[in-house]
Amino acid sequence: MTIKMIVVDMDGTFLNEQNTYDQARFMALYARLQKARIRFVVASGSQYQRLQNQFAAVKDELDFISQNGALVHHGHELLQVSALNDDDLQQTLQLIQQDFPTNMIVQRTISGVRKTYIERQVPAATLTTIQRYYHALEPVDDFFHLSATKIDDQITKIGLTFAPQVNFPAAVQHLRAMLPPTLMSQNSGFNTELIGNTGIDKVTGISELQARYNIAADEIMTFGDNENDLAMLQMTPYGFAMKNAAAAFRQQAPQITIADNDHAGVLATIESLL
């Protein structure tokens, strides 16, 4: 087994349930990865700025795939953007406003390269949850009529978090059926769907880095716990589903980690294989 790149999801995977990880243990492992010339890549549905903050000590050295593949960075260098067409954005925002009343949705976000945009009147508890996943935020007054021109940003994702009482599978089915064919939605856990350009996911982000560093699929190790991770787990023989992932998800992955996310399952598995 020759591994040249390790790609990790964050929430439910690399991070424990307290939204942290063992930094000293990671830095010790990272030193070993550097010596072996193995790249470490962070791949998440959440915001690039948040990921940078979580790896502040090495943020200039790592590669980041954020917003489920819509953005790819090496350190601070932006390598790839998959921005939404303004017509698609406006059509989707109107459909969301018409088809999903406020009592069905607890959180709405529109993410760009620079910031994530939220409605100005957001309850304090909701804002606290949003801030867990998005560190560069800007409240806006006219959320449902936002455009790239109005905010001088490239818009890449629309995020919807459904209320606990909602029939989530039925709501997702309806959402995906109403989207224009140029857009798709992926589940990112926590009753959240992220809407972006069709065909863009974590695998397309990995493909960008494969080309940059000349790395084959069977030289990559991946870790994840949710639907938006499955394709990157299945692209390599060394795709690891988290031990804490749902049983149906684990069955679809080539490998399973030796511990769950609350017991540093990613770090433990990598250490056991190095």
What does this protein look like?
- One of its GO terms (molecular function) is phosphatase activity.
- InterPro entries: HAD-like_sf, HAD-SF_hydro_IIB, HAD_sf.
- The chain is an alpha/beta fold and 274 residues long.
- The protein is 35% helix and 25% strand.
- The protein has 2 domains: 5-81 and 201-273, Rossmann fold (3-Layer(aba) Sandwich); 86-197, 2-Layer Sandwich (Hypothetical Protein, Haloacid Dehalogenase-like Hydrolase, Chain: A, domain 2), CATH 3.30.1240.10.
- It has helices spanning 10-14, 23-35, 48-54, 86-99, 124-133, 148-151, 168-178, 202-213, 227-234, 247-250, 265-273, and strands at residues 5-8, 39-43, 63-66, 71-74, 77-81, 105-112, 116-119, 137-140, 155-162, 183-187, 192-197, 220-224, 238-241, 255-256.
- The strands form 2 sheets. It has an 8-stranded mixed β-sheet, with helices on both faces. It has a 6-stranded mixed β-sheet with strand order 8-7-6-9-11-10, with helices on both faces.
- Strand 7, helix 5 (124-133) and strand 8 form a beta-alpha-beta unit.
Task: Produce a short descriptive summary.
The chain is of the alpha/beta class.
